# Entry
Amino acid sequence: MKIQGERLYLRPLEKRDAHGDYPSWLNNPEVCRYNSHGEHLYTTEMAQSYIASVSDNPAYTVFAICLKENNQHIGNLSLQQISLKNRSAEFAILIGDPSAYGKGIGYEAGKLLLDYAFHTLKLHRIHCGTHTDNVGMQKLALKLGFTQEGKRRDAIFKNGEFADIVEYGLLYNDFLKGQK
# Structure
């Protein structure tokens, strides 16, 4: 399955991705500045294990974000903790190639994933959370139509200190309103 956008496409994360740039992203302090990665060396074997664990797991849908112009894999995007009973999931994104920052890649990929989540998977609610200092992700969540729902105080320990996680949610009806 391939989900086509204007400048990029989403495809399922594959075993071969563990042999590309993907593992190095999780060792890059800039890429991991606000997420839970980067504490320990992330290896090809760990990437292979992760890919195998999510490939046939109904609670996860993980896509590689690839540029159309050269098929370069520049990031990952996922729905996690998918609950078909509750028709909900968590949205997560990692742009691994810093040269792609600030170019609207996250927004385009996010729109594609949300359309898939709401129209193909028939989900009702998507949520995400981010480090209180991750202004880029906060702006992305709002631009995608998410609503800030609150904060989890001291929910992440990163770089020797606790930080809050800002929580966002998006309901199907609000997603439809945003598309008009």
About this structure: Helices lie at 22-25, 44-55, 105-120, 135-143, 172-179. The domain at 3-179 is CATH 3.40.630.30 (Aminopeptidase).
